[in-house]
Write a structure and sequence with these properties.
The complex is a heterodimer of chains A (222) and B (461). Chain A has 222 residues and is mostly beta strands. Chain A has a single domain (31-220), classed as Galactose-binding domain-like (Jelly Rolls), CATH 2.60.120. In chain A, 10% of the residues lie in helices and 33% in strands. Chain A is built from one helix and eleven strands, in the order αβββββββββββ. In chain A, the strands form three sheets. In chain A, strands 3, 4, 6, 7, 8, 9 and 11 form a seven-stranded antiparallel β-sheet that branches. A two-stranded antiparallel sheet of chain A has the order 1-2. Chain A has a two-stranded antiparallel sheet with strand order 5-10. The radius of gyration of chain A is 18 Å and the shape is globular. Chain B contains 19 helices and five strands. A five-stranded mixed β-sheet of chain B has the order 2-1-3-5-4. Classes of the chains: A mainly beta (222), B alpha/beta (461).
Chain lengths: 222, 461
């Protein structure tokens, strides 16, 4: 009896979520995930103030229908024009594999990489893979969106785990996270802008800044 | 500081605190390294574990490396001047020995003692000298009290001696090789020194039965225990970089030349020793990069022999006149540049980088920020003596990095933990203490490649 009730309740919940999504013209974000390269360290961190690594498949994230990855093969610039490993175009070439040859490595300390979406766009989600061959945490990860390529006037911050304000962009309240093959999904809440800038400040293994892939999911602003 | 170095440092710290050395048959190897490091640390003014510094501890292994280099002076009679000069230079400058000679682990001392054993053992047989036999016994005791792997080296040395006698000396009668009294005295010295060190000068006799228990433990470890590597691992490590390829290439020339000649020179013995040692180490699945230091002695000497042979070619073929010395000088210059480059990169520029083949499960630089962070946050919160609770099944090398804090406790996951100002947990343990950690802010630190700990500090107001 309870089993049937639970089953019906689950079906009903799924139905309601789908109806709600359709009503708002929303669909689950579909991205192709790379194969996982390590098992082990991302263990259940079931503590409320610590981000829980996504061991199982991440729950669907809903975005408006017609949302695309606007970042793919667009122009990339960075604070380090001579990466230690790889080239800047690797950040948005669609290769999310965690093995060597798939990432670009920027120099030590505070660095940023920036994608020009070519047009001002409404951004709903950002997916970021720094490195996923082993458990690592990248320090002071900040993601900003702006229509100004220089970000001089500041941008809209959609993620900030720099809680000591090392980067000088303001102290963040977002939690550190362990990198996995599923990447970091950031809810951009439809923020408008043409340029997306990713900051970081080394990681728990070394002082370097790696980028395997960045996806910016949105729609060109009308 | 590598985890193994941190463990050795902690043992020195215990002895500084007046505790007795206790031999552990499961891990941590023998007492020789600690026995030498303790007086050196005291001379440098260390009184407690927290007084110790990396350089104070590493001085012991650096000195052991220097002894190896100096021993080539005593080896000239055995291996010739030029090969010894070249081998000494290779020990002093090549990346592998330079890297591991400053690591506070047993390998550098072990390699020095093994070289001493070969030199004095050869002389004892050659000169029938009782003093040399006693020195050989002392060296053998030092090898054994360094690491239990000494047994493998004793086996390789004994097997090499037998094959050398059969193959190179064609089984000829060795008149007076065995002097019973000298052999007995040497055996007594070996036993006396070994017992003295393992029992820590008679204060822990339990070490002797424990030593017998070490064999099954180390046999199990030989199976790998997470350190399994392919058969060719050491070859790959030794031939890494252009300098490695050049040195190993020359060593192969020297080795082949020796084996082909079937000469009764010490090189014949060294060739068989290298062969047996390589077979043993390569067949054992458990492999760590610092064990490659044991191959460096034959590699360096055979490389030196190859260069000496090339240098002597004009004597046999005068037509080659100046060409061969010029080639040797050119090769030497190229080798010097390659060695300088590789040593600079591996030892000084990227010592803890994962791309460095010598940096094995190395503590990343990131961890150096953990004590600094605790100090900074404690100062911000006006906590003069912060209480730190570490909860992890394997907390190493944290005891080393937290040695300057006076109130540090270590707990195993699942144990009840006292209230603290800061918590440091393994990622696995964090989940079990969610209520206790509720008001704390987490920050990750790397302890080894792929292994993280979480520092929980009072949440920022």
């Amino acid at each position: 009896m309870i089993k049937i009730l639970v089953k019906n309740l689950a079906v009903l919940t799924a139905l309601l979520v789908s109806i709600a999504a359709i009503a708002q013209d929303k669909v689950p974000l579909k991205t192709k995930l790379p194969p996982p390269l390590f098992v082990g360290t991302p263990v259940p961190l079931n503590v409320t103030n610590l981000e829980r690594p996504t061991k199982a498949k991440r729950p669907d994230f809903l975005v408006p229908a017609g949302t695309l990855n606007l970042a793919k093969n667009k122009k990339v610039t960075a604070s380090d024009n001579n990466p230690i490993v790889g080239t800047l175009d690797m950040i948005n070439d669609g290769d999310k594999d965690g093995n060597e040859g798939s990432w670009v490595e920027l120099g030590p300390g505070k660095q940023w990489a920036q994608i020009d979406l070519a047009k001002s766009s409404n951004i709903y989600a950002v997916l970021l893979w720094h490195f996923h061959a082993q458990a690592r945490v990248y320090r002071d990860v900040v993601v900003q969106v702006s229509d100004d390529p220089t970000f001089r006037a500041g941008g809209t911050t959609i993620f900030n785990s720099d809680f000591h304000n090392e980067l000088g962009l303001g102290a963040g309240k977002d939690l550190n996270y362990v990198e996995t093959y599923q990447g970091k999904l950031i809810d951009a809440k439809g923020v408008k802008g043409r340029y997306v800038r990713f900051y970081s400040n080394g990681n728990t293994a070394n002082k370097l800044n790696d980028y395997i892939e960045a996806e910016v999911w949105g729609k060109p602003a009308v | 500081m590598h985890t193994d170095e941190a463990v050795n440092a902690y043992i020195v710290g215990q002895l500084l605190a007046g505790e007795t050395y206790t031999y552990d048959p499961k891990d941590r190897h023998g007492p020789a390294l600690t026995a030498l490091a303790l007086p050196l640390a005291k001379i440098q003014g260390a009184k407690t574990f927290s007084d110790l510094t990396e350089s104070e501890l590493r001085l012991t292994t650096v000195l052991a490396g220097m002894v190896t280099i100096l021993l080539f002076g005593a080896a000239v009679e055995m291996f010739g001047f030029l090969p010894c000069l070249i081998a000494a230079l290779l020990f002093a400058c090549a990346p592998l020995p330079v890297y591991y000679d400053r690591y506070f682990i047993h390998e550098s001392l072990f390699a020095a003692a093994t070289f001493g054993l070969i030199l004095t053992g050869w002389r004892a047989c050659k000169r029938h000298s009782t003093i040399q036999a006693l020195l050989a016994a002392a060296c053998a005791a030092l090898v054994l009290t360094c690491k239990e792997t000494a047994v493998l080296h004793f086996f390789a040395l004994a097997a090499a001696a037998i094959v050398f006698w059969l193959w190179n000396l064609r089984g000829k009668r060795l008149v007076g090789l065995w002097r019973p009294i000298a052999a007995l005295v040497a055996a007594a010295v070996f036993l006396l020194l070994s017992v003295m060190l393992f029992t820590w000068f008679g204060s822990n006799w339990k070490a002797l039965p424990d030593l017998l228990h070490a064999a099954p433990n180390f046999l199990a470890r030989a199976g790998g225990e997470g350190h399994q590597k392919p058969f060719w691992y050491y070859a790959q490590l030794l031939t890494g970089g252009w300098s490695g390829r050049l040195i190993c290439g020359l060593a192969c020339v020297g080795f082949i030349q020796t084996v082909r000649r079937r000469s009764p020179s010490p090189y014949g013995f060294l060739a068989f020793y290298a062969l047996f040692l390589a077979a043993i180490y390569n067949l054992i699945p458990y492999k760590t990069p610092w064990l490659a230091l044991n191959f460096w002695l034959p590699v360096a000497l055979f490389a030196g022999l190859a260069i000496e042979s090339l240098w002597r070619v004009p004597k046999t073929y005068p037509a080659l006149g100046i060409a061969i010395p010029a080639l040797c000088v050119l090769m030497g210059a190229v080798a010097a540049v390659l060695i300088a480059h590789d040593t600079h990169q591996r030892v000084f520029v990227h010592p803890a980088d994962e791309t460095n083949p010598y940096a094995y499960a190395q503590t990343p630089e990131d961890l150096l920020g953990l004590p600094t962070e605790v100090e900074k946050l404690a100062l911000q919160d006006s906590v003069a003596t912060p209480r730190i609770a570490v909860i992890a099944s394997d907390p190493w090398p944290l005891p080393w990095y937290l040695r300057h804090f006076s109130k540090v406790g270590f707990w195993q996951p699942g144990q009840r933990v006292e209230r603290a100002d800061f918590y440091i947990t393994s990622t696995e343990a964090a989940d079990q203490y969610r209520d206790q950690l509720q008001d704390f802010h987490p920050d990750f630190f790397g302890v080894r490649p792929g292994v993280l700990v979480v520092l929980w500090s009072p949440a920022l107001k």
